[in-house]
Design brief:
The radius of gyration is 19 Å and the shape is globular. Helix content is about 25%, strand content about 30%. It is built from four helices and eleven strands; from the N terminus they run βαββββαβββββαβα. It has about 180 residues and is α+β, with helices and mostly antiparallel strands.
Length: about 180
């Protein structure tokens, strides 16, 4: 894979049953803005973004049959601090989001939930640690930030794979990260 151009994740498109209910969820609960909408073939596209430099980060497209299997595993949204993650968790609870599940993965602290059509979303932040994945333990927001960090180290610190993210990155991408 060396020599390939670098890329960044741009946007995701979702087939939806009820475009208005989905638009309301993504704007009201997650703070997206409708940046555009218009006809496409026999349907309509609705574009959403939270970033003023991106025309869209999510596009909603009607046409998903009622009760159809959802092939999207999850949509993950990254935040920078534990305080941000706590705010999102409280906001999701206040908005009545479905299936809210705070999780400690060791390498990330996450809050999982579902949109009105059952698509799984994740708001997460990276921890400073690596531990072999998958890992899934309950994340306890009643702990202060130091307590959350300590709980992660206590849970996963005995695992032989547990190390700093810098150490892990240097193993995967030798010479690119100061360990």
């Amino acid at each position: 894979m060396t020599g390939l151009p670098r890329w960044t994740m741009s946007h995701i498109g979702l087939h939806v049953v009820d475009i208005e209910a989905m638009a309301a969820f993504y704007t009201d609960v997650l703070g997206f803005r409708v940046t555009d909408r218009g006809p496409f073939r026999d349907s309509e596209l609705l574009f959403l973004s939270r970033n003023e430099t991106d025309h869209h980060q999510i596009v909603l497209v009607p046409g998903r049959p009622e009760g159809a299997f959802n092939i999207v595993n999850q949509i993950s949204l990254k935040v920078g601090t534990l305080a941000d993650l706590r705010r999102y968790h409280a906001h999701l609870v206040a908005k009545g989001a479905d299936d809210i599940d705070p999780v400690d993965h060791g390498n990330a602290w996450s809050v999982y939930f579902r949109d009105p059509e059952g698509n799984r979303l994740e708001v997460f932040m990276d921890t400073p640690y690596y531990v072999v994945q998958p890992q899934r333990e309950a994340l306890d927001f009643s702990l202060d930030d130091a307590g959350v960090d300590r709980a992660t180290r206590d849970r996963f610190g005995g695992d032989p794979s547990f190390c700093s993210v810098a150490e892990w990155r240097n193993r995967i991408f030798p010479g690119t990260v100061d360990a």
